[in-house]
Amino acid sequence: MKIMNILIVAASIFTLVLVDSCKKNPDIQATPLPIPPIVTTKPVTTINSTSVVSGGEFATAANITDKGIIWGTDSSTLTISVSNKISNGATSSNFTDTIQILQPNTTYYLKAYAVYSLGVIYGAAIKFTTPPTVYLAGYHGSSAAYWKDGKLFTLAGGTYAHSIYAVGSDVYVAGENNSAGLRAVYWKNGIPVPLTNGTNAALANSIFVSGNDVYVGGYELYNNNANLPVAKYWKNGVAVSLTNGTLSNTGIVNSIYVVGSDVYAAGFTANGYMGYQIATYWKNGLAIPLNDSNYSIATAQSVFVKGNDVYVAGNEKNQLGIGGIPVAKYWKNGASVVLTDGSQHAGAYSIFVAGNDVYTAGYEYSGLTGYSAAKYWKNGISVSLTDGSKYGGAYSIYVLGSDVYVAGGEDNNFDARCWKNGAIFPLEISAQYSRSVSIFVQ
Questions:
Q1: In the predicted model, is pLDDT for residue 430 greater than 90?
Q2: Could you give the 3-state DSSP secondary structure of residue 165?
Q3: Is the residue at 260 inside a domain?
């Protein structure tokens, strides 16, 4: 047994000596690990509602098999295996990419990556939020037009666009087409959808999209008689008349709003025999007058529904006939809220409710300059957008978060205007005459 133990010890010593000698042998070397790349995510630039620019820069860039940027809305899952990706191949140079498929008004996370033989190296994640997309409708030169984030698009065959609405990437614009009689029409992504055949003159003043249904409000003349407008709206091209077109029951729809199965329209009705004009809104075809036609003439220009409350903006002149001064106002569930004091002509064209705040856009003349100033009112407090040195008007208002967007115009060759929080939002304009009368933000 002692002899066996001695042999085991001797064998162990021999093994240790052999291993030690191998370590000291310069002809036997371990394979070096590859040097990992070091990549930095470039700061994001040129952030638009649907695109952004970023990229990556390398401090070391050996052994790269792929590189690029990845992005998503969840920072915890931002990896090349599950995220959106732009690949820039295996070269070791710095790179810049433009992502062009983003959603507006959305928070994203983005980072650069580099792949090498042992795995993936990432740059730091950068958080950014795309701004909302701003749509405007009106006219540009002799053509109906709309603007998307300031870029101009003209509408084939259209002479005037009165209203705009967007759902996802689809853009709906309501207006008029003069190519075969004055026809009510709307365009979906620039493709015209006629609502009338041109036998009777008609206009589309307002558009609203609810699910798969497209609602357009406006009017069509009865027997093409300019004194007999029939207030109506179209649901998916099928007309619904709100007045009958007789001289005692005419009207026009200026605005439409849909909540669930309820269809609200706002405009006016008139008795042609007496010349009375009544600010009116309709709920599912039932007319609800807003002023007393025995004492005043009024028009409803815009309707907005929030919960059980119905808000309607317009103007009212507390005198029959051609005299009197119209005041800007709105009605909440039929109760009148006056915005101007009646010393100068004024009117409200659009209303929007955000939280507990009521925003109304319109105009008011100045006794000093003799011109109208574009303005909006927040809870009755006016905010001027132009100084009244030339004609101005605010025709549509939209509120998103803390930002207030207004469409309108100022008369220097009838320039279209858009304001964001009182500052002018740039628009592409190349014709002498232009106007923006409707705004939608998403």
A1: no
A2: strand
A3: yes
Query: Cβ neighbours of residue 298 under 8 Å, at least 6 residues apart?
Result: 268, 277, 278, 279, 290, 291, 314, 315, 316, 317
Residue 27: the pLDDT is: 54
Q: What is the pLDDT of residues 140-150, one digit of tens each?
A: 999 999 999 99
- Average pLDDT score over residue span 12-33: 50
The sign of the CA dihedral 209, 357, 394, 263 is positive
Tokens of 35: 């040097």
b/e burial code for range 56-91 (CB count within 10 A of at least 16 → b)? bbbeebebbebbbbbbbeeeeebebeebbebebeee
Domain that includes residue 232, residue range = 134-441
Percent with pLDDT over 70 in the chain: 91
pLDDT at 299: 97
Counting every residue written for the chain, the total comes to 442
Contact status, residue 361 vs residue 438, Cβ threshold 8 Å: no
- pTM comes to 0.87
Q: If residue 20 lies in a helix (H) or strand (E), which one and from where to where?
A: helix 2-23
Instruction: Select from 272, 269, 194 the least CA-distant residue to 232.
Output: 269
Per the CB < 8 A criterion, the answer to whether 12 and 5 are in contact is no
**7, pLDDT greater than 50:** no
End residue of a domain, out of 76, 111, 129: 129
The answer as to whether 21 is a domain residue is no
Judge whether residue 15 has pLDDT over 70: no
Q: Helix, strand, coil % (nearest 5) of the chain?
A: 5, 55, 40
Q: Which segment of 157-161, 233-237, 321-325, 369-373 scores lowest on mean pLDDT?
A: 321-325
* Phi–psi pair at 284, nearest 5 degrees: 55, 40
Residue linked to tokens 């015209």: 192
Residue 26 reports pLDDT greater than 80: no
**Are both 216 and 307 inside the same structural domain?**
yes
> How many domains does the chain divide into?
2
Chain centroid offset of residue 239 CA: 27
Which of helix, strand or coil describes residue 232? Answer: strand
379 within some domain: yes
Q: Whole-angstrom distance between the N-terminal and C-terminal Cα of the chain?
A: 91
